[in-house]
Fold:
Amino acid sequence: MKAGVIGVLALVLGLGAYVFLSGTAEETPQAAPPQGDALAAITLPEALGPNAKIGQRVFQAKCADCHGVDAVGVDGSGPPLVHKIYEPSHHADEAFQRAVQLGVRSHHWRFGDMPAVDGLTRGDVTMIVAYIRELQRENGIF
Structure:
């Protein structure tokens, strides 16, 4: 009887610690399944605007290894950017500029810190942001 009570108490304390440390799902998205899998399923726009087309090419060359082709994320590498966390009211365009220039300390996801990305200009990042924003809008993220 005493062992059963201790077991239940340990389970409740463990669950409470897990909930406390993991935060809410909205603030702390779960790091996902096995490495390499896409983390989001998205709808692609029928066509991209001229700036977004440029941004798509730059994104695929410099960002897709970690953030996935079409910004769907890569499990074990980087989060999807077509996600409500990256909506313009939460992560303004300048946040993307700073992330590329300075890197980012891990705060929403459990992928570790993002290093600065060499070889991209502010203009390049502006085009990448145009691409990401078009993907977001197509997927209901405004």
Observations:
- The chain is about 45% helix and 0% strand.
- The two ends are 56 Å apart (CA to CA).
- The mean pLDDT is 82.
